[in-house]
Amino acid sequence: MENELIAALKSEDGEQALYKILELFSGYVCTVLRNFSGGSLSAEDTEELCFDVFRQLWFHRENLRCDVGLKPYLSVCAKNAVRNRFRSLNSPAKDAENIDDIEEILPSEFSIERAAELNEMMTELHKAVKTLSAEEQEIFLRYFFYGEKTAAIAHALGINENTARSKLSRARGKLKEFLINRGYDHV
Fold first, then answer.
1. I need a surface site. Which of 75, 112, 154, 181 has the fewest CB within 10 A?
2. Given this model, what pLDDT does residue 118 score?
3. Architecture in CATH for domain 111-180
4. Sign of the torsion angle spanned by Cα atoms 158, 161, 163, 165
5. Are 145 and 79 in contact (CB under 8 A)?
6. Cα(183)–Cα(20) distance, rounded to whole angstroms?
């Protein structure tokens, strides 16, 4: 179903597809926003960020891939929206108006090399996650990308919470080993 929605979103009937996606996934996006923010967002902020996520989906619809699906994309957008909201609330340089102010906005440890390294590591992490079993992938993604608690994950999968924690720990160990074997010794 998600593949059809992505295809429709890219077509001439894109607006209708967007309304359908809003109808189907707005609750999911709000849940990710609440989980990732630790419940610290007001209802108005959650609603505003939810619509920001769907606006991002609309503006970047041509970049969507059918093989990835909507939930991972919406989840990442929601997490980024929360991060950006918290950053904007805590940023001393919120109103930088010209390029000379860029150094005040960027973290002092920012570098192009570090950004490229992180991008490469994320590609490797994606490969590593693909090596996990389907259940390990689900637990890992729900915990780290969707911000769900282990109790909620265990309940959704019909397993004991300690089992979910053990599988999460083992998955993290496998991913760490995978990345270390590829030269990421600072994982």
1. 112
2. 64
3. Orthogonal Bundle (1.10)
4. positive
5. yes
6. 44
| In the chain, where the domains are located | 1-93, 111-180
Locate 174 and state its tokens.
Answer: 């496998």
Highest mean pLDDT among 124-128, 159-163, 181-185: 159-163
Distance CA 66, CA 48 (A): 27
Q: What local confidence, expressed as pLDDT, does residue 170 receive? A: 94
Q: Is CATH 1.10.1740.10 the right assignment for the domain spanning 1-93?
A: yes
How many percent of the chain have pLDDT more than 90? 16
Q: What is the DSSP string of 1-51?
A: -HHHHHHHHHSTTHHHHHHHHHHHHHHHHHHHHHHHHTT-S-HHHHHHHHH
